[in-house]
Amino acid sequence: MEPIDRRDYGRLEADVEHLKSTVDRMENDLRAMRDMMEQGKGSWKTLVAMGGLVSAVSTFVGWLIHGWVPK
After folding, report:
1. What are the backbone dihedrals phi and psi of residue 53, each rounded to the nearest 5 degrees, phi first?
2. First and final CA of the chain: distance in angstroms?
C-alpha cells in the first residue's frame, strides 16, 4: 500500500470539515422546523377551540332572536 500524499490528505481533512459543518447546519434547520411544527400544532388546537366557541355563541344568539322576535 502506497502512502497518501500530504496534499491529498489535507484536501480530505478540508472535505470532512466541510461535511461536518453542513451536517451541523442541517441539524439546526431540522430543529427549527420541528419547533415551528410544534407551534403550529398548538395554534391549530386554539383555532378549532375558537371556531367551536364562535359557533356555540352564534347558535345561542340565533336561538334568542328566534324566540324573542315576533313572527
Report:
1. -65, -45
2. 101
